[in-house]
Design a protein that fits this description.
This protein is mostly beta strands. Helices cover 0% and strands 47% of the residues. It has strands spanning 40-44, 55-59, 69-71, 78-83, 92-96, 104-112, 118-123, 129-134, 138-143, 149-154, 160-165, 171-176, 180-185, 191-196, 202-208, 213-218, 222-227, 232-239, 244-251, 275-281, 285-290, 296-301, 306-311, 316-321, 325-330, 339-342, 348-354, 357-362, 367-371, 378-379, 388-394, 397-402, 406-412. The strands form eight sheets. It has a five-stranded antiparallel β-sheet, with no helix packed on it. Residues 2-7 and 10-104 have low confidence and may be disordered.
Length: 415
């Protein structure tokens, strides 16, 4: 997964430090600064006459590491350069114009967590805690409001590819390149359960309902269902013969036939009935199976390897590919996609259902929000060319993790 921009295939990206200038009607003037005391400057182009000087507006520096530069909300009207200080409690508010419509306000803050790549993150159900994993084999639990470190979870060998909170918000599930699936206590940082059985690195996980069962997808080509109470594997849901880069579990619409199980399900399976399991595969296939029945629902062939997937409803889903395509499919008629969204050729690394639309992140550092009731796309910028691996939300707050070791928090005030 994530060829050319990620860590899971072990490739060394070569284009991550290239400067990417936003599309502009006039070039951005260079900003002179001495870290860590520098303020961003917003430049607004004047359309009346070229002789008039450009208006400048100072905005407060964000919670950035000194010397870092980010471009926030570039548009045809406004360009913002922000050079921040090392303080985490500072926050700047940016107002951007979208095609001449009403401004959308964003507050952006950065949380410094690691000098390593942050491969995944999640926010607890109450919004108070965040968890992130990195390439040094550790995970960190931190205060979502200010990034204060609360716990360090150590026990995986090599990279930790995925992490997520259980619905309780007090327990964490993780999977790593050591082929181990672990459950942790967020209160005392202890590892309470370790699942073994995969023969390759675990690339993604999903939690079934309240969390008595979990699902994992691995580089060994299998998706497995686990019993958390007994630390046992309840069965192999699918054997694809290639890496499973992403998994998602969703409740099926009543009109969808999931089939009947060939064998009586284990009494340890809780909440698997009427559930679909979606598998994003390396061989350009998107597979859907009944979680309890193990019967195939559909198999869709895309343009390139599928990296991630998510459900929008009981019959609508999204899946992102390595060549930048986002497929929206209807499970009731999966032969032809409802629509295909393509913004760039960079790999789609994360997809998340959000209100009436979704949030996506890509390997070129871009993240964006698509909503059905809006005829424009909201860009969440700041990562420059570093890939944004994961997106998480809580209410109006959006969190992203990036290869530069930073977690960015976006506060949407009027969306």
């Amino acid at each position: 997964m994530i060829c050319g921009v990620g860590c899971r295939r072990g490739l060394d990206p070569a284009l991550l430090w290239l400067w990417r200038r936003p599309v502009a009607t006039a070039p951005i003037q260079p900003l002179a600064w001495e870290p860590p005391y520098a303020l961003g400057v917003a430049q607004r182009n004047s359309k009346k006459t070229k002789k008039k000087k450009k208006k400048r507006k100072e905005i407060k520096g964000f919670g950035l590491v000194g010397g870092s530069v980010m471009i926030t909300q570039p548009s045809h009207e406004t360009h913002v350069l922000c050079v921040g200080t090392s303080r985490l409690d500072e926050m700047g508010e940016v107002y951007s114009m979208f095609q001449g419509r009403k401004s959308t306000s964003l507050s952006v803050a950065l949380i410094v967590l690691s000098f390593e790549q942050i491969t995944c993150l999640d926010i607890s159900s109450g919004g108070g805690l965040g968890v992130s994993s990195s390439t040094d084999g550790s995970m960190k639990i931190w205060q979502a409001s200010n990034g204060e470190l609360r716990r360090v979870l150590e026990g995986h060998v090599f990279d930790v590819n995925c992490c997520r909170f259980f619905p309780s918000g007090l327990v964490v599930l993780s999977g790593g390149m050591d082929a181990q699936l672990k459950i942790w206590s967020a209160e005392d940082a202890s590892c309470v359960v370790t699942f073994k059985g995969h023969k390759g690195g675990i690339l993604d996980t999903a939690i079934v309902e309240r969390g008595k069962n979990v699902v994992s997808g691995s580089r060994d080509g299998t998706a497995r269902l686990w019993d958390c109470g007994r630390s046992a594997c309840l069965g192999v849901i699918a054997d694809c013969g290639c890496s499973i880069n992403g998994v998602a579990v969703g409740a099926a619409d009543n009109s969808i036939n999931l089939g009947s199980p060939e064998q009586t399900p284990s009494e340890r399976e809780v909440g698997t009935e009427s559930k679909m399991l979606l598998l994003a595969r390396e061989d350009k296939k998107l597979q859907c199976v009944g979680l309890q029945s193990r019967q195939p629902v559909f198999l869709f062939i895309g343009s390139d390897a599928f990296n991630c997937c998510t459900f929008l409803s009981g019959f609508l889903l999204l899946a992102g590919t390595q060549d930048g395509n986002i497929y929206q499919l209807d499970v009731r008629n999966p032969r032809a996609p409802v629509q295909v969204i393509h913004r760039s050729g960079a790999p789609v690394l994360s997809l998340l259902s959000f209100r009436d639309g979704f949030i996506a992140s890509q390997g070129d550092g871009s993240s964006f929000i698509v909503q059905q009731d809006l005829d424009y796309v909201i860009e969440l910028t700041g990562a420059d060319c570093d890939p944004v691996y994961k997106v998480a939300t809580w209410e109006k707050q959006i969190y992203t993790c990036c290869r530069d070791g930073l977690v960015r928090r976006y506060q949407l005030s009027d969306l």
